[in-house]
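Example complex used in Figure S2.
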Amino acid sequence: KAGVTQTPRYLIKTRGQQVTLSCSPISGHRSVSWYQQTPGQGLQFLFEYFSETQRNKGNFPGRFSGRQFSNSRSEMNVSTLELGDSALYLCASNHEFTDTQYFGPGTRLTVL
Amino acid sequence: SQQGEEDPQALSIQEGENATMNCSYKTSINNLQWYRQNSGRGLVHLILIRSNEREKHSGRLRVTLDTSKKSSSLLITASRAADTASYFCATEGVMGGATNKLIFGTGTLLAVQP
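Predicted assembly (226 residues):
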């Protein structure tokens, strides 16, 4: 089975712009979770989608949003980018009957 | 902060030695997972231990869990240079229904010298 894929792998944006990141889970996995990793805050949970519904949300401002499509692919969007949004964004997928989360390679976002 | 703590923050050992990392967390959990990360890349799942388990093995990895102390340890035996990476523990809390929300520890940076 192919693993979790994330696109793009690297992205450079300027303050005020918006960005959309994409994640394709492992085939058969209906849950996709998103995490932000920064040197200062570490790994933090953003949100989780299951069957096109947001099931859990972390403590991030409304500028961070996401969605999931019927094929389980997920996108996350960050509007009005700030310098502090520079981070590695990771998505993870898991099968509904297991607890193990499988992570993609991440998207490195740099905000200038 | 809900974030777990890992100890030590950094560890440097020689090839062949054992490496032990500790993780403490704050809330009741369903399970605890250990992940490895190489140089800012994606996380690789190593092992999952459930709240009703006390010890688990996988190859050169041994994980223990003490729910009364809210702590876990990861032991890597006979370490290799390729084990050089950051290691994170992550907990899935007890909540109504499925969560798939992991709370990560601060990580331990392991350097294995050849």
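Residues 45 and 104 of chain A are 15 Å apart (CA to CA). The two ends of chain A are 37 Å apart (CA to CA).
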